[in-house]
Design goal:
The chain is mostly helical and 77 residues long. It is 44% helix and 0% strand. It is built from 2 helices and no strands. The longest helix is centred in the middle third of the chain and has 26 residues, at 26-51. It is elongated and about 80 Å long. The termini are far apart.
Length: 77
């Protein structure tokens, strides 16, 4: 919302010169550019989620559990 307000009203200018001729459309350019970035992120995220979910996992998660052995990190108080 802040960027949209800056785009419509402009920032304070100490010289008092208007910059209306140097503006480009917020909706036409920046929204499209941001949507492309979001879609690229979602493609890479979905590749990790659906095709290789264990890539970023910790190796300790693949050790089978043994109910007869207490982990070393669990100690009595």
């Amino acid at each position: 919302m802040h960027f949209m307000a800056l785009h419509v009203h402009g920032s304070s200018n100490p010289l008092g010169i208007t910059g209306n001729m140097d503006r480009i459309g917020m909706h036409g350019y920046f929204i499209f550019k941001d949507l492309i970035t979001v879609f690229v992120f979602l493609i890479f995220f979905s590749l990790f989620v659906f095709f290789s979910p264990n890539t970023l996992g910790h190796p300790d998660n693949y050790i089978p559990g043994n109910p007869l052995v207490t982990p070393a990190s669990i100690v009595p108080e």
